[in-house]
Amino acid sequence: MNTDDLNFAYKVRHALNERLDDLPASTTDRLAQARKLAMARKKAHVAAPLTVRQARFATAGDGGVLSQGFGWLGRMGVALPLLLLVGGLTGIYHFEEQQRIADLAEMDAAVLSDELPPTAYLDHGFNAYLAQSEQ
Fold it and tell me: Can you tell me the distance from the alpha carbon of 10 to that of 1, in angstroms, rounded to the nearest whole number?
């Protein structure tokens, strides 16, 4: 049900409840008898479905079905993806750090073997120079 349907249902219910006191006694007696007959015919083992309002109160945290929390499987369903995410981010950080260390070690080795002049550290085109020397 969308919100327009719900709004219409609430308006109809309100309009019917406004005129409830104006009903003749014979009509209210027939309605009461019909309700009693319907309740007598209702099967005892079949639970009546919850209305929207009852369902809202059942989940409000006062002993309702959803206020009992998650079981261990539900907690693992939340914790496992979080652990995998943290592990993945840690792995990516470690890999990037190792790459940076390897690049710095290669640069230092090139400087120490006199293949790379010390002014290359100050040159803005240093990355282009390294790319050229690798090819």
Answer: 13
CA 28/CA 8 separation, integer angstroms: 25
Predicted TM-score (pTM) of this structure: 0.35
pLDDT (average), residues 65-89: 78
- Least trusted range by pLDDT, from 8-22, 56-70, 97-111, 121-135: 56-70
Q: What is the C-alpha separation between 129 and 46, in angstroms, rounded?
A: 81
Distance of alpha carbon 135 from alpha carbon 129, whole angstroms: 10
Largest CA distance in the chain: 111
Place of tokens 């995998």: 84
CA dihedral (77, 83, 84, 86) positive or negative: positive
Paired tokens of 65: 């079905």
Question: What type of residue is 129?
Answer: Y
Only one residue has tokens 């990037």, namely: 96
Predicted confidence (pLDDT) at residue 53 exceeds the cutoff of 60: no
